Known about the structure:
Blueprint: H1 12-31, E1 35-36, E2 42-44, H2 46-52, H3 57-62, E3 64-67, E4 73-76, H4 81-95, E5 99-108, E6 120-129, H5 134-150, E7 156-161, H6 168-178, H7 186-194, H8 221-236, E8 242-243, E9 257-262, E10 272-276, H9 280-283, E11 291-297, H10 298-302, E12 316-320, H11 325-340, H12 358-371, E13 373-375, H13 383-392, E14 397-401, H14 403-408, E15 410-415, E16 421-425, H15 426-433
Parallel strand pairs: 1-5, 7-8, 12-13, 12-14
Antiparallel strand pairs: 2-4, 3-4, 5-6, 6-11, 7-9, 9-10, 10-11, 14-15, 15-16
The structure holds histidyl-adenosine monophosphate.
Amino acid sequence: xxxxxxxxxxxxxxxxxxxxxxxxxxxxxxxxxxxxxxxxxxxxxxxxxxxxxxxxxxxxxxxxxxxxxxxxxxxxxxxxxxxxxxxxxxxxxxxxxxxxxxxxxxxxxxxxxxxxxxxxxxxxxxxxxxxxxxxxxxxxxxxxxxxxxxxxxxxxxxxxxxxxxxxxxxxxxxxxxxxxxxxxxxxxxxxxxxxxxxxxxxxxxxxxxxxxxxxxxxxxxxxxxxxxxxxxxxxxxxxxxxxxxxxxxxxxxxxxxxxxxxxxxxxxxxxxxxxxxxxxxxxxxxxxxxxxxxxxxxxxxxxxxxxxxxxxxxxxxxxxxxxxxxxxxxxxxxxxxxxxxxxxxxxxxxxxxxxxxxxxxxxxxxxxxxxxxxxxxxxxxxxxxxxxxxxxxxxxxxxxxxxxxxxxxxxxxxxxxxxxxxxxxxxxxxxxxxx
Length: 435
Ligand code: HAM
């Protein structure tokens, strides 16, 4: 049996990197005043069809949709902006008309699977509702760039403006005029009539589009001025970017400034993308609310993050002989309890007699216990084999519990890094841990 085409199991290093990226994003965006939002994975189809555009690739070809038992059309969400706007209109706009939210979660698109493109993937997205000024666009791009820098991911940024309802219709007419006699793929034939800007994003007909004039020549004064202001703010913030006048986005809700971030080694798959969508909230039933946002693909960013896992040994493993089993488990319980109280209760004035390394050993031990603690679960297994296991699993310390330890009410602490071994009495350990 296999996973569904375009999906895969995440495990090991890649999972570690994803968890790292997601938890870094959570604390990063929270620290900037974004609030986390979790919307359902399933939504009514209408949330996406008109908002993303009936002629967008997603709506035309890529939605996982099905009819629910009550006859309603339901989809697995292909992106996070439309659901966030649905939530904003239903709830958030009443409490806080100006809001910054972020979300982390799986999205589904029935695309042709290839490197960097899956049918289930994850996005970390940010949306800023009620922010209409160029400062907000620049801030958003800056924040995206800062986050990628904070996780050590290089990137280049492309910037453009896709115009607004004042200037875009003139540009659309121009595209239609240019493409009048050009042979186009079936999708683009439909787009040419109803949404010609979408043709510019076509992968099939790219070579036939070179002659089309640039949108820059059609911008209204407002779009031009906003684009220039965003550019100048970005320069002030030392964010480098390239103006790509051919950049259009695959979704219909964008107006004004749009952007895409790429890794220098992959100019095909954007890692992060977004822009302004000033009319979407109104379109979905809310009050006019200028907004902007972006989403990054977790899998695409993770490809370029370094392994941040600490190398080297950590944690404590408890090994014991059969006769010392109960005593070993009581130590396991004592140390597990100690993990529930904070390290600030440690009392460093305890210098136990006869302990090699004294307080330093106890401090390292208790720090290790907090990271990882486990006990042998096969009492019949010999001590030697338990030690081998702890070594293979990269534990820092093994606590050895046998007859002598039971008699002396202590444990032998073997440091697998240095190789030395010391007896620690439980009364000293308890005192040090403050339990
Ligand atoms: P998008 O460009 O469709 O925009 O997707 C954003 C990011 O999600 C892409 O740059 C890419 O990293 C990742 N992504 C998209 N499709 C796939 C896939 N099949 N496999 C792997 N990664 C993928 C949006 O979704 C907008 N909602 C972004 C936005 C938020 N605009 C405003 N606010």
